[in-house]
Amino acid sequence: MFADRAKITIRSGKGGDGHVSFRRELYVANGGPDGGDGGRGGDVIFEVDKGLNALTDYRHKRKYAAENGQEGGKKRCHGADGKDIILKVPEGTVIKDADSGKVIADMSGENKRQIVLKGGRGGKGNMNYATATMQVPKYAQPGQPAQELAVMLELKVIADVGLIGFPNVGKSTLLTRVSNARPQIANYHFTTINPHLGVVDLEGCDGFVIADIPGLIEGASEGVGLGHQFLRHIERTRVLIHLVDAASTEGRDPIDDIYKINKELEAYDPKLMERPQVIAANKTDMIYSEDEDPVERIRQEFEPQGIKVFSISAATGKGLKELLYHVKSLLDKIDKEPVIFEQEFFPEDMLIAENLPYTVKQDEEDEHLFYIEGPKIEKMLGYTNLDSEKGFSFFQRFLKDSGILADLEAAGIEEGDTVRMYGFDFDYYK
């Protein structure tokens, strides 16, 4: 079965603990501390694999964890870093926080690889704590704990054009006729249970990718039937072809069908109604009534709304060329950049919410130097890469949202003063 949704739990590696030990060698008195640092915990990384087209693997295994860092050793030996875990997903996979539904990462476009959870930093061994006044430190820093998060993986197919409509209006037949896709075709509802992608080749110009979105029904936006499973695949498309049964072979009114499907699209995501839409009035080879032309009736209803209507027969090929070239002209007018979902949830934000202590104090000898210390700061620095633009941006937001900046200002900090935290120095500017 095609798997386009999976809920999994991911966990980064714990940082290895620092080691407490003392140099013991013959003829070497008071060798001093030599406990090494712990290794870094492994990251959880998502990576696009072009060979995958479904999330099947994540249906069978639900928990994924990176390796923990190893504890430091004697003789100043550094513990081994934990191995990262790389989770392969198909292009078009959106990673969301399972609780809030907010987007963490969209594995599309240029984003082929993303670290979602950082491993904990290794703790420092007791060799780092020797001072003139404390020559025998019996303390080592523990490694930072792992981060754990429940995420929802959603595969949203990447296609230029989405083919939508009620079941049995001929979407699979049309896709077979105009592209290289070969979906199974039969006359019963929900024959198509997987989105099918096909490449449309056009003479004299570039082609485009079209997706057959399985038949929708009323209530799909509320999850009726397989509603959400189908609707999510429309979100990336740039143009919609709305296929209707103009001959009313199943007794439904095509105009009523169009309004019902559009209502479901709007209820699911109002932005979908902003996409250019084309109506393809299908099964015209089965229209036998001489009293009224149903296609003309559809035109009178929708063309005044700016929606072009084409009379086609997917079975015979009638009118398909005109339809496809019109769709291509619409695509040429639209930004070719794929629809990418912006990040809304930052796993690092969990650090801001944690109620850990910290202190802000001014240096006794230098009034222009301020220290920030405590578990809250130490933990934040362990999970944040300050060398990256994204990491430094989070660092600034962390200081503000945690109330640390307000505490610095209350302590009397001024522009140009230095803020020092665990080996990092920053100049303060408002």
Can you offer a commentary on this structure?
The protein is an alpha/beta fold and 430 residues long. The protein folds into three domains: 1-155, Spo0b-associated Gtp-binding Protein, Chain: A (Distorted Sandwich), CATH 2.70.210.12; 161-332, Rossmann fold; 349-427, GTP-binding protein OBG, C-terminal domain (GMP Synthetase, Chain A, domain 3), CATH 3.30.300. Helix content is 20%, strand content 22%. It is built from ten helices and 18 strands. The chain has helices spanning 57-60, 171-178, 227-231, 254-268, 294-302, 320-332, 349-353, 375-383, 389-401, 404-410; strands at 5-11, 44-48, 63-65, 85-89, 93-97, 103-107, 113-117, 148-155, 161-164, 196-202, 205-212, 239-245, 277-282, 309-311, 359-362, 369-373, 418-421, 424-427. It has a six-stranded mixed beta sheet, sandwiched between helices. A hairpin with a 2-residue loop joins strand 17 (418-421) and strand 18 (424-427). The longest helix has 15 residues, at 254-268. It is elongated and about 110 Å long. The two termini are 56 Å apart. Monomer. Keywords: Cytoplasm, GTP-binding, Hydrolase, Magnesium, Metal-binding, Nucleotide-binding. It holds the Pfam family DUF1967. Belongs to the TRAFAC class OBG-HflX-like GTPase superfamily. OBG GTPase family. This is GTPase Obg.
